Amino acid sequence: MDASKNWRKKMNELKEHFEALNRDFTSLKEYNDQKFKDVADRSLSKAELDERLEKIDSSMNKHQTKLEELQTKMNRPSMGTIENAADEKKEARRKAFDSYLRRGKHGMDQMEVKTLQEGVDADGGALAPDEFIADLLYVLENKNPVRQLCRTMTGRSKQIDFPARTVNLAANWVAEAGTTSATQSTYATKTIDALKISAMTPVTVELLADSYLDVTSLLVEDFGEAFALTESTAILTGSGSGEPEGIITNASVPVVQDGTTLVIGESTIIDAFHDLKGGYAANATWTMNMGTLGAIRKLKATTSGDYLWQPGLSAADPSILLGRPIVVSDSMAAFATDAKSILVGDFKGGVVYDRLGMSVIRDDYTSAADGIVRFIAHRRTGFLTADPAAFVVLQCGT
Questions:
Q1: At a CB cut-off of 8 Å and minimum separation 6, what does 139 contact?
Q2: What is the 3-state secondary structure (H, E, C) of 366-378?
């Protein structure tokens, strides 16, 4: 019997005992109220009345005991937090996965192994439960600020088709009763492949044996940091060969190059920002590495003498460059000849596609002599520069 049917059966049973208890109590009151009247009328003897009342009392005790037993069972943590079959299955998978991480398959009981095997993937790893994946994505979002700015999509397919804009919408003036010839936005269907990305982290046998260690949180943090850096690099500068093509690598993204060797000056920064269309500029974010940001902080506008960079007043009010926020990413190139060191644009023009599901392999053997268990995680993700016009790349001079 599945969990939802079992739950409904217990609820019905609880209801039946509660109703029976109420009926018995009503009977008890009626008989008790009539006791002296019946004795006086001599319709029933006192002994007969006492016997009937004892039966009612016994029935009440039985229903009361059953009610308490059912309520105790239904208030247990495993029942109180799991209200249907789907949730119960999730909880079983979570526990089996945690047992797999801590002890490996050789240390699991048969039921846990059976539950875990329902999620074995082609790589031989165990599919991570939804909670593990949700926690990992949370770390990814926080460790990879570029990803936060992009649109994100999820699905179960290895690839999805997405409409990428090729011609922007344009309008024109039309005379009364005239025919409009306004240009409509046009799109080309582009495919986003969910490419495989892997990470490995070692954990000592002693740590795994420590019951106070939260193995799941440890792996989420390690894998999250590893994936975040790799994905950030792919979104910005990915080659497109075996990994996503990054925004800066995309040939359709406009490039503004400085005429001075090794640097990007204030005039180039201003020109690049104003190359963005109004809608994009209003939602634009600057991206550069920490060294580049240090150089940008020293720049002043030639005419006004004001610094281009302005400090933020709080975490909710970040530092700005020409009125728009800055994201620091180690994936951006440092100043060098021809280096594309700064990117500005509306990152909603980029789309991250995450394929649902993620597997983790526990390797007990490769580093066994060193007392190390290796954990290897596999997930699939992709990226597409869906709207190249949303960005401008700033390139150092030759």
A1: 220, 221, 223, 224, 225, 228
A2: CCHHHCEEEEEEE
Q: Which value, in Å, is the radius of gyration of the alpha carbons in the chain?
A: 34
Under 8 Å between Cβ of 286 and 344: yes
Q: What is the dihedral of CA 150, 155, 161, 165, to 10 degrees?
A: -20
Q: What is the DSSP string of 337-360?
A: TT-EEEEEE-GGGEEEEEEEEEEE
List pLDDT tens digits, range 120-165.
565 567 888 888 998 998 898 888 989 999 999 998 888 888 877 6
| Tens digits of residue pLDDT in 222-247 | 999 999 999 999 999 999 999 999 99
Q: Please enumerate in sequence order all residues whose Cβ is within 8 A of that of 87, keeping only pairs 6 or more positions apart, or say none.
A: 3, 81
17 pLDDT above the threshold of 70: no
- Euclidean distance between CA atoms 54 and 65, whole angstroms: 16
Residues pairing with 340 in the sheet: 395
DSSP 388: G
pTM (2 d.p.): 0.71
Neighbours of 221 (CB within 10 A): 16
| CA neighbor of 375 nearest in space, from 207, 247, 255 | 207
Question: What tokens does 68 get?
Answer: 């308490």
Q: How many CB atoms lie within 10 A of CB 127?
A: 20
SS3 334: coil
Q: Which residues pair with 197 in a beta bridge?
A: 379
Report CA dihedral (225, 229, 234, 237) to the nearest 10 degrees.
170
Segments of the chain assigned E as strands: 126-127, 151-155, 159-167, 186-193, 195-204, 255-261, 285-288, 309-310, 320-321, 324-328, 340-345, 350-363, 372-385, 391-397
Alpha-carbon span 149 to 226, nearest angstrom? 19
The four Cα atoms 106, 109, 110, 113 give a dihedral, to 10 degrees, of: -60
Distance in angstroms (rounded) separating the CA atoms of residues 165 and 162: 10
Task: Dump the DSSP string for 152-199.
Answer: EEEESSSEEEEEEEEE--------TTPPP-PPPPEEEEEEEE-EEEEE
User: What six digits make up the tokens of 257?
Assistant: 């190059």
Q: Are 272 and 344 within 8 A, CB to CB?
A: yes
